[in-house]
Each structure stands twice: as structure tokens, then as C-alpha cells.
Design brief:
Elements: E1 10-14, H1 24-34, E2 43-48, E3 54-61, E4 64-71, E5 86-89, H2 91-98
Parallel strand pairs: 1-2
Antiparallel strand pairs: 1-5, 2-3, 3-4
Length: 118
């Protein structure tokens, strides 16, 4: 199926700024050369430009790459700009990002280990 990104095992975001003029080959080169990751793995790679209103997603299917492009008409993505690396995020963080929220929610309930009962 074309662009079924729900099958991705991992989701990475390219923190910092990406030149949004880059095509599939340019984005795949960033993944491979800058982040030392395999662009053909079962992973979704997300990129965002300086304006923070456009996003590109690169995903490998069995027979080739899928490039998805999203442009917000109203608002901006809350994109982490502090480093130039690929940051692994959870599917929940991906949903937050797509909803216009930060990937780190300060008030979310943190996971904990169950207490041992004596």
C-alpha cells in the first residue's frame, strides 16, 4: 500500500533545520551520511524546514521510497531545534507532533515500575 507509515518500527526526527528542497535521494543521503542510519530500514524519517510549517517524511517500502509532504495552512510544528541529529521518538510523540504539540509533554503521567508487595 502506498505510504502505509503505520508499519514503521521506528520513527526518527531530524532535529534542527533541513533544506526542504531536497528530494528522496537528498533526504536518504542525510539519513545515511549524517545520522549513520539505514534509510531502507523499516523506519520513518521526518524532516522540517526553517519555517516549521512544512514537513517531509521518508519511508522505505518493499519496492522503493515513499516521500510524504505536509504543509500546515495555520500554525507551525513544534520542532526540536537544539541538535543536528536523528532523534528516536515514540508513536505517541509522533501524534503529539502532528497535533501541534511539543514531543516532550511536561505534565504527562510518567511510566513507573510496579511496587513490590511484601
Amino acid at each position: 500500500m502506498l505510504g502505509d507509515i503505520s508499519k514503521a518500527e521506528k520513527i526518527y526526527i531530524a532535529t534542527g533545520y533541513t533544506d526542504m528542497r531536497k528530494s528522496i535521494d537528498g533526504l536518504a543521503a542525510i539519513v545515511q551520511q549524517n545520522f549513520h542510519l539505514d534509510p531502507c530500514s523499516n523506519s520513518l524519517f521526518l524532516f522540517c524546514g526553517k519555517s516549521s510549517s512544512k514537513l517531509k517524511a521518508l519511508y522505505w517500502e518493499e519496492d522503493g521510497f515513499v516521500l510524504l509532504y505536509k504543509k500546515l495552512e495555520n500554525g507551525k510544528f513544534k520542532w526540536p531545534r537544539n541538535e543536528q541529529e536523528a532523534q528516536l521518538i515514540t508513536s505517541q510523540q509522533f501524534r503529539w507532533l502532528m497535533e501541534g504539540l511539543h514531543i516532550e509533554q511536561p505534565k504527562r503521567i510518567q511510566k513507573s515500575m510496579p511496587k513490590k508487595v511484601l
